[in-house]
């Protein structure tokens, strides 16, 4: 029990793993070296390459900081995949072909989780075979409860493939609430908003020292809500407005005797990191080459082909994230993407960015309203709002809550680690509960 059960936050963009040091509540996060610095976030990306070992070719993979470093220094062509969590609910995308090998999404995720587990084992000095893991309230793309359960089952399979013998899933915002609770000296009814790369997740929950002492019950959780709209969806808007026009979006091609727009679906895939990662398939590349042959602005399509063929998705992601992060603190930010023949320079205004993401913001706001409405809780009854996750830095996201609750009822913090910290606290609570044979009601 205890030291072997860790909290694992497998995020769309960043993952973390933590353990709780006994009932004192002290949490230790696994730490990783990235570009000479120490970080508690393991980028949830995977880089694959064919390598020759003992005279044989094998498909090797690296994730997190090692994946980034290997990708950036690559000499042979490789494949980089990002935002894999967003594929889990998709029944049409079971697997992808990488260097002629069919790999299931679960296998790819398992490679990331396995690396994370090994890193933590080395640091914590104990074998790790059991996890309390986060899951979004609703997986990206899950239209029905069946889709959502299907996604969870696939994530469970990935954990098992990665060497976790037991895994218990809890909603990510509930985990963040446990972390927030550990900072409290009085009881509160709180609204948690966790804004990540793939999903925005909410919990309305009573927390505090008295509740911990008396033992939590299911009535303390007034409701959860979630939506598959967060940082990646904001990035999609930046790609649409700043990047895609340079790659031929909106241009035309000649088809027999007609002038037609170039196919839009390619740009739709380009906008979503998980789809962009898998665009480099033979049939897509063939199609792009044929589009280029008919395009009225073939140089732009050639740039698109290069971007996909040379796996520049990570660099593009970094450029987009840099601009977006700067817009969180400034009204204007440059956008620069430069790689080989591709050179895109633009300036982004925060006001424009906010208009590009207006629909997404409205959907997030609607999700918060439905949570409060379904729980029959007036916003005045909420003592505090705790905002966490990387996308909570976006001023327009914070404003949704400032308008409803007032700035003095908003708290924020541990944006990239609150979920893993809370999961570690929940892991220790569970093991204590099982030792004391007391009941822990799950929300
Ligand atoms: N300063 C910032 N301003 C705006 N967005 C940011 C900032 N820093 C990080 N982000 C965004 O936050 C997201 C990552 O946040 P986080 O690590 O909390 O997500 P995650 O846990 O991986 O995803 P999920 O919880 O949805 O599975 C990315 O979309 C990233 O671009
Ligand atoms: Mg998260």
Question: Overview of this structure, please?
Answer:
The protein is α+β, with helices and mostly antiparallel strands and 443 residues long. It has a domain at 2-186 and 414-436: Nucleotidyltransferase, domain 5. The chain has 15 helices and 22 strands. The strands form seven sheets. Strands 1, 2, 3, 6, 12 and 13 form a six-stranded mixed β-sheet that branches. The protein has a five-stranded mixed β-sheet with strand order 16-15-14-21-22, with helices on both faces. The longest helix is centred in the first third of the chain and has 20 residues, at 105-124. Residues 435-443 have low confidence and may be disordered. The structure holds adenosine-5'-triphosphate and magnesium ion. The site of adenosine-5'-triphosphate (ATP) has 23 residues, from helix 6 and helix 11.
What are the key terms here?
Nucleotidyltransferase, domain 5; 6-stranded mixed sheet; 5-stranded mixed sheet; binds magnesium ion; 443 residues; alpha+beta; binds adenosine-5'-triphosphate
In the CATH hierarchy, what is the architecture of the domain at 2-186 and 414-436 at level 2? 2-Layer Sandwich
Q: What structural class should be given to the helix and strand makeup?
A: alpha+beta
Oligomer: single chain
User: What fold name goes in the CATH topology slot of the domain at 2-186 and 414-436?
Assistant: Nucleotidyltransferase, domain 5
> What portion of residues is helical?
40-55%
**Computed CA radius of gyration, to the nearest angstrom:** 23 Å
Bound molecules: adenosine-5'-triphosphate, magnesium ion
> What about the largest sheet?
6 strands, mixed
Shape: globular
Q: Termini, distance in Å?
A: 22 Å
CATH homologous superfamily name of the domain at 2-186 and 414-436? ATPase, nucleotide binding domain
Question: Which range does the strand content fall in?
Answer: 25-35%
Number of helices: 15
* Mean pLDDT level: 93
CATH class of the domain at 2-186 and 414-436: Alpha Beta
Number of strands: 22
């Amino acid at each position: 029990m205890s030291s072997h059960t860790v909290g694992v936050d497998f995020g769309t963009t960043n993952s973390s793993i933590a353990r709780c040091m006994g009932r004192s509540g002290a949490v230790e996060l696994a730490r990783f070296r990235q570009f000479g610095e120490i970080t508690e976030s393991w980028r949830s990306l995977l880089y694959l390459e064919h390598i020759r070992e003992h005279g044989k070719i094998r498909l090797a993979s690296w994730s997190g900081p090692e994946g980034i470093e290997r990708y950036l220094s690559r000499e042979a062509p490789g494949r980089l995949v990002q935002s894999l969590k967003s594929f889990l609910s998709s029944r049409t995308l079971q697997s992808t072909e990488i260097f002629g090998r069919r790999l299931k999404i679960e296998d790819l995720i398992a490679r990331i989780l396995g690396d994370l587990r090994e890193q933590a084992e080395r640091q914590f000095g104990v074998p790790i075979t059991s996890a309390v893991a986060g899951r979004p309230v609703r997986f990206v793309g899950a239209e029905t409860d069946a889709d959502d359960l299907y996604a969870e089952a696939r994530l469970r399979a990935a954990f098992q493939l990665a060497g976790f013998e037991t895994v218990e899933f809890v909603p990510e915002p509930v985990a963040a609430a446990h972390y927030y609770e550990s900072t409290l000296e009085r009881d509160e009814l709180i609204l948690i908003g966790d804004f990540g790369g793939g999903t925005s997740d909410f919990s309305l929950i009573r927390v505090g020292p008295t509740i911990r002492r008396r033992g939590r019950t299911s009535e303390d959780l007034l409701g959860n809500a979630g939506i598959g709209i967060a940082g990646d969806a904001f990035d999609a808007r930046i790609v649409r407005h700043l990047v895609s026009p340079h790659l031929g979006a909106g241009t035309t091609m000649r088809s027999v005797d007609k002038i037609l727009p170039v196919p839009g679906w390619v740009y739709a895939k380009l906008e979503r990191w998980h789809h962009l990662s898998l665009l480099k398939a033979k049939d897509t590349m063939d199609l792009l080459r044929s589009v280029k042959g008919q395009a009225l602005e073939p140089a732009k399509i050639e740039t698109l082909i290069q971007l996909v063929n040379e796996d520049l998705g990570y660099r593009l992601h970094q450029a987009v994230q840099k601009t977006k992060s700067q817009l969180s603190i400034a009204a204007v930010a440059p956008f620069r993407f430069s790689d080989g023949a591709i050179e895109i320079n633009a300036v982004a205004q925060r006001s424009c960015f906010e208009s590009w993401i207006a629909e997404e913001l409205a959907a997030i706001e609607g999700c918060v309203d439905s949570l409060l409405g379904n729980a029959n809780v007036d916003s005045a009854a909420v003592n505090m709002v705790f905002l966490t996750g990387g996308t909570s830095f976006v001023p327009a996201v914070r404003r949704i809550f400032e308008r409803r609750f007032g700035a003095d009822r908003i708290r924020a913090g541990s944006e990239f680690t609150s979920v893993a910290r809370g999961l570690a606290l929940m892991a220790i609570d569970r093991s204590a509960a099982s030792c004391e044979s007391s009941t822990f009601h799950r929300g």
